[in-house]
Design goal:
Largest sheet: 8 strands, mixed
Number of strands: 8
Helix content: 25-40%
Shape: globular
CATH architecture: 2-Layer Sandwich
Number of domains: 1
CATH topology: Alpha-Beta Plaits
Strand content: 25-35%
Number of helices: 5
CATH superfamily: Nucleotide cyclase, GGDEF domain
Order of helices and strands: EHHEEHEEHEHEE
């Protein structure tokens, strides 16, 4: 992949960041041959990448069982957080059960980020609190769950009835933050927009 010329100048902007991760990846790697891991993980990761792109997300990095994507790096329509949350919900729904199709957990946050050129092969770097919080929210989410940070929740019109605010401690973050957890039993018909 060549360096992305759109990101040759450092700049700040508001964007939504989504981290998605597969549940049980380490257990899978430890119990089956690498070819089986690939056969299980690759189709699901392909689906997750397609979901991100369908919602206007740009993949920043893919690392084995997870990835980071950003919404709103170019055109800012004011719906970046909503698109990221919808993508996160679709990703969680795309997961399955262990060893057949791993479940997915994800985290989304919205905020100001610093966009920079990156080292190849990545096209750009994204830095800031929203990036850190989105990753920590993904780690906080259980199998089949989506954790949404306050910035993304407030910017999104999505108000699932099951998304209850809770205070949580995120690794490395000094003060507790308010998150909105959408549990594994969430269904699209419970979505009010």
């Amino acid at each position: 992949m060549e360096h992305d010329a759109r990101f040759t100048k450092e700049h700040r902007r508001f964007a939504a960041v989504l981290f998605a991760d597969l549940t049980g990846f380490t257990e899978l790697v430890e119990t089956v041959e690498p070819e089986i891991v690939y056969q299980v993980v690759r189709p699901l990761m392909d689906d997750l990448v397609a979901i991100a792109r369908r919602h206007g997300g740009e993949i920043q990095q893919i690392l084995g069982d997870g990835f980071m994507c950003v919404f709103g790096l170019h055109d800012t329509n004011g719906d970046e957080a909503e698109r990221a949350v919808r993508a996160g919900l679709a990703m969680v729904a795309a997961g399955g059960t262990q060893f057949v199709r791993p479940s997915v957990h994800a985290g989304v946050e919205f905020g100001e980020v610093f966009v920079t050129p990156s080292w190849p092969p990545a096209g750009y770097g994204v830095w800031g609190r929203a990036v850190n919080h989105a990753q920590r929210l993904c780690s906080l989410a259980g199998p089949g769950e989506l954790q949404i940070g306050t910035g993304a929740y407030n910017r999104s019109k999505i108000r699932p009835a099951l998304a209850r605010p809770q205070r949580a401690r995120l690794k490395g973050v000094l003060a507790p933050v308010v998150t909105h957890r959408i549990p594994a039993n969430w269904r699209p018909e419970s979505l009010a927009s």
